[in-house]
Amino acid sequence: MKVSKQKMAEHREQIITAAAKRFREKGFNGIGVADLMKEVGLTHGGFYGHFGSKEELIGMASQRALCESTKKWKKVIEEAPDRPLEVFSRYYLSRRHQMHPETGCLFASLGSELDRQPRSVKEAVMEEQLTIFDLLSRIVPGRTKAVKRKQAIVVLAGLIGGMILARSVPDDVLSEEILETVSSSIPNCVHADGT
Amino acid sequence: MKVSKQKMAEHREQIITAAAKRFREKGFNGIGVADLMKEVGLTHGGFYGHFGSKEELIGMASQRALCESTKKWKKVIEEAPDRPLEVFSRYYLSRRHQMHPETGCLFASLGSELDRQPRSVKEAVMEEQLTIFDLLSRIVPGRTKAVKRKQAIVVLAGLIGGMILARSVPDDVLSEEILETVSSSIPNCVHADGT
DNA sequence: ATTATCTATAGATCTATAGATAATGC
DNA sequence: ATTATCTATAGATCTATAGATAATGC
Question: What is the per-residue pLDDT across B154-189, written as a single tens digit (0 to 9) for each?
């Protein structure tokens, strides 16, 4: 029943990856350790050889989810050297993102649960959050670094709130209106203060 | 053990009120029927004389929470006839609101859980959401009703996202920076497009 | 007589641990 | 010999129901 050290490391990665997906899909309380382990092909007892607690996994999985998003966003931005902010906003506020929280932004799928997580989880999240601020700082207008950072925060807040509002509504027409309205507002909004 | 019809109606209200508070504080899964009933001074078995299921209570409590917020916001806005938008934004993005999710905006405390709730809950939420759009439409700049509505959506999205970002972080300095940055951006941001 | 609430419990979860098992890696 | 995983289970939840109890309201 024992597996090689390398296999074990793979298992650990698989558990984190599955958790990052299912937590975003079902919430931190929406899936249990047993089901996660079953998805990876292991039994639930084995979980505690990899992690000290579910809480520890929540921290790892949250960081993983945000890190994945940052990578994807970087790619999207690099592939649109002109108007990167507009392209990124549309990408974030797309119908596709709305319908697939399990592979999307952690703040949109679990943001309001983060405040109720232990400090260790919030610390892991903050680390990635700062990276995202830096990434967005490069594509928003603004004369100084400080202004760009502010713009990045404002943009991210608008995107997260827009997606949460759109997802919270059972009416497709209204949720599409929300996505379209917020994403249209961003380039304009941002130009006002900075450049 | 039976109580009068009026007392029973009061109990029902108390259950909804307690739920609206505790759900925002601990999440929809963070408090159970038994504890809610204990808070009201009843036993858990009695719950199902008032509601068919916990899900039904989640719908009622969500609507209640949003309705309370709308009332408070209306008051805040009416008490600041000049610069209502700025005053409201500062009120929403205050440290006080950050520290008290249990009496604050449902979208900030439970927004990302709403997508995982059954349709009946989302319908109850949407009803109040439209009222909020109307309320904010009155204080944002814009030449036409359509533009004002769009501005209202953009503002609400920014506020919700800003509060969620601020709460998700374990560092007081960073979270205050987020609140201040987003709330400073709103009057500017909004003037750009509309009036 | 009706019924709001209580007591007791069923049945399903869920996190975590203990000890057994069997494969790795010295 | 060490250890990653499995089996089995403890102990704590949680939603929901059934039947008893006692107060209301006809």
Answer: 999 999 999 999 999 999 999 999 999 999 999 765
Q: What is the pLDDT of residue A1?
A: 76
Which pairs count as long-range contacts for B35-43, CB under 8 Å and 24+ apart, including other chains? B40/B11, B40/B14, B40/B15, B42/B11, B42/B15
Using a CB-CB distance cutoff of 8 angstroms, which residues of chain A are in contact with residue B185?
150, 154, 189, 193
- What angle is formed at CA A179 by the lines to CA A96 and CA A71, rounded to 5 degrees? 50
Q: Cβ–Cβ of A189/B154 closer than 8 Å? A: yes
B93: burial class by Cβ within 10 Å (0-12, 13-18, 19+)?
A: buried
Q: Indicate the residue type of B40.
A: V
In the block, residue with structure tokens 């204990």: B38
Q: Under the phi-then-psi rule, with left for phi > 0, alpha for psi from -120 to 50, and beta for the rest, what region is A169? A: beta
Give B104 CA → C9 C1' in Å. 38
Q: How far apart are alpha carbons A93 and B152 in whole angstroms?
A: 17
Q: In angstroms, how far is the first alpha carbon of chain A from the final one?
A: 62
Confidence of residue B192 (pLDDT cuts 50, 70, 90): very low
**Nucleic strand C under 7 Å from the C-beta of B44:** yes
CB environment A36-62: b (16+ within 10 A), e (fewer): bbebbebeeeebeebbeebebbbbbbb
**Contacts of residue A83, Cβ cutoff 8 Å, sequence gap at least 6:** A187
CA distance B167 to A160: 13
| Contact between A165 and B107 using a beta-carbon 8 Å cutoff | yes
Query: Which residue type occupies B28?
Result: F
pLDDT by residue (tens digit) across A34-92? Answer: 999 999 999 999 999 999 999 999 999 999 999 999 999 999 999 999 999 999 999 99
Asked if the Cβ of residue B15 lies within 7 A of any atom of strand C, the reply is no
Find the CB nearest A156 among B112, B125, B161: B161
Round to whole Å and give the CA distance between A12 and A36.
Answer: 12
Distance B1 CA to D20 C1' (A): 11
A120 in Cβ contact with A59 (< 8 Å):
yes
pLDDT at A188 over 70: no
Its pTM stands at 0.95
